[in-house]
Specification:
Blueprint (H helix, E strand, L loop, with lengths): L7 H28 L2 E3 H8 L3 H9 L14 E3 H8 L7 H18 L13
Antiparallel strand pairs: 1-2
Length: about 120
């Protein structure tokens, strides 16, 4: 095998160029990926942050919405995946505190003012 001798400066320059090209390729891939509405299994797994095998099991058990045209490959709509992800929200501590505060402000309206402030609630 013939080896071309390069000076250290040339090698460093080539590495910089290659690294720049890799970064540019990643940016282009991200733009294309972001504009896609329908994802294949691999893309959907990346989008959800799970393994392909986990996603395949979810489709097999009909846990997640998907499309299978001609009984071949599996596809997912991004909007449907987002709806599926958002189906069971869990409130943060701040949201729970706000809800409790709002409930406390409406509670005095339910107390009968004629009950001599005993705290009796009349429903």
């Amino acid at each position: 095998m013939c080896r071309i001798e390069q000076k250290p400066n040339e090698t460093a320059l080539l590495r910089k160029v290659v690294d720049g090209l890799k970064q540019e390729l990643e940016r282009v891939k991200n733009v294309v990926y972001a504009s896609k509405e329908v994802l294949n299994l691999e893309e959907a797994a990346m989008f959800l942050g799970i393994s392909k095998s986990s996603l395949y099991k979810m489709t097999h058990n009909q846990v997640i919405p998907y499309f299978k045209p001609n009984n071949k490959m599996v596809y997912f709509e991004k909007t449907e995946l987002l709806k599926w992800l958002r189906q069971n929200p869990v409130a943060s501590q701040g949201q729970i505190a706000e809800e409790a505060k709002a409930s406390c402000t409406t509670l005095p309206k339910m107390i009968n003012p004629l009950s001599s402030n005993t705290g009796t609630i009349h429903i």
